[in-house]
Write a structure and sequence with these properties.
This protein has 9 helices and 7 strands; from the N terminus they run βαβαβαβαβααβαααβ. It is α/β, with parallel strands linked by helices and 255 residues long. A 7-stranded parallel β-sheet has the order 3-2-1-4-5-6-7, sandwiched between helices.
Length: 255
């Protein structure tokens, strides 16, 4: 994998990179030569473990704490990355969570806002923070992490999350149209059921067994399988892809 995509000299920022898809993405980008800023909000131990993995393999990375739902903290995150490594070439908006499963009559305004902010507003703020530099330099790749939930409405109790992820897909298309003329490519990935802490928290073993039975490939996906597609989209191998959302779900949902 390390020889598949040449990202040498590139600077990447991955949000929510302390576990799951985010951590796998940070490690994969670094394995392909990028210098990576590992963002985390609360899971410092996971971020430090990702950093140790990258540097131990000869890669270059830093760990930066920030709540990416807050504009000021996003700006600080970007500034720290630029000060350490230089202008950001690759942005992966991975931060997100369901927080908790709630049906419509249980869902409060506060929880709705929290989940929308975490999954959608964060992507907007991070893109806004790096867009100016990318446009000025006429280069850059942004990859947003959506979800199969944004395509099919999600499992019961996740309308706040699925709505946010549907918004990420639409945001990706609109931003791709705006930034494309400046040489900046914006795409997304839409993971299906992936073996991450997300499902450890929000899906029971019975649910996971049911999910696996619905997947034509017959198994749950891995974070590394998603990370490799993100790495592809971030590389020049995807030089003519813009505004696309790639489904990574083993055939569970086919657009």
């Amino acid at each position: 994998m390390s020889d598949s995509f040449d990202l040498k000299g590139k600077v990447a920022l991955v949000t929510g990179a302390s576990s799951g898809i985010g951590r796998a993405t940070a490690e994969t980008l670094a394995a392909n030569g990028a210098r990576v800023a590992i963002n985390f909000h609360r899971n410092q131990a996971g971020a430090e473990a990702a950093h140790a993995q990258i540097t131990g393999a000869g890669g270059s990375a830093i760990v930066v704490q920030a709540d990416v739902t807050r504009a000021g903290e996003v700006q600080s995150l970007v500034e720290q990355t630029v000060n350490q490594f230089g202008p950001i070439d690759i942005l992966v908006n991975n931060a997100g969570s369901l927080v908790e499963r709630l049906k419509i009559l249980e869902l409060t305004e506060e929880r709705w806002d929290e989940v929308i902010d975490l999954n959608l507003k964060s992507a907007f703020l991070c893109c806004q923070a790096v867009a100016g530099s990318m446009m000025a330099r006429q280069t850059g790749a942004i990859v947003n992490v959506a979800s199969i939930a944004g395509r099919n409405g999600g499992a019961l109790g996740s309308i706040h999350y699925s709505t946010a992820k549907g918004g990420v897909i639409t945001f990706t298309k609109g931003l791709a149209k705006e930034l494309g003329p400046f040489g900046v490519r914006v795409n997304a990935v839409s993971p299906g059921v992936i073996d991450t802490p997300y499902h450890e928290q929000f899906s029971s073993p019975e649910m996971m067994k049911t999910y696996a039975g619905m997947i034509p490939l017959g198994r749950i996906g891995t974070p590394s399988e998603v990370a490799k597609v993100i790495c592809f989209l971030a590389s020049d191998s995807a030089s003519y892809l813009a505004g696309e959302t790639i489904e990574i779900n083993g055939g569970m949902f086919m657009d």
